[in-house]
Amino acid sequence: MGVEGTMEYISELLKMRRKGKKKPMQTVALRVTRIDCEGCERKIKHILSGVKGVKSVVVDAKQQKVTVMGYIEPKKVLEAAKSTRKKVELWPYVPYTMVANPYISQAYDKKAPPNMVRKVPDTVSVNETTVDDSYTIMFSDENPNSCSIM
Predict the structure, then answer these.
(1) Among the four residues 30, 76, 119, 127, which has the most C-beta atoms within 10 Å?
(2) What is the chain's Cα-based Rg?
């Protein structure tokens, strides 16, 4: 094994060591209120692009949304965004097709972008229902005594 083989071996070892520490590529979406002007956009973009591992920052002032892509941790991005002295939270909206009940009071939000609702946990499973089955059967068309009840 000559000098070239030794150099290749060492470089492969260093590459493997770096791969273990590298964070996965992530996209972090934030909701930042009060993005009023281009100066606010520049300030947010400048601060977030200074975070280690950030590859791109996209600011959408109309939706009050900031999208950060890179080899980053969401907590660090959130902390950096809070240093702008604006109200910052992780993007709370998802497409309404992703939510089981998009029109319940917790999910519906007037300030949400079009076709989006707040992300809420599914509280009702398939086996649970809000209406008892006996009431459903009592007033169904298949029940011959339903006319006497009404």
Answers:
(1) 30
(2) 26
User: What residue spans of the chain are helical by DSSP H?
Assistant: 3-21, 38-49, 74-82, 133-138, 146-149
| Residue 6 to residue 13: CA distance in whole angstroms | 11
Closest CA relative to residue 91, chosen from 58, 123, 124, 122: 58
This prediction has a pTM of 0.63
Per-residue pLDDT reduced to its tens digit, 87-109 = 999 998 888 888 877 777 777 88
34 in Cβ contact with 87 (< 8 Å): yes
| One-letter identity of residue 45 | K
From 87, 91, 86, 85, select the one nearest 68 (Cα to Cα): 91
- Tell me the backbone φ, ψ of residue 143, rounded to 5 degrees: -80, 120
- Residue 80 near residue 44, CB atoms below 8 Å: no
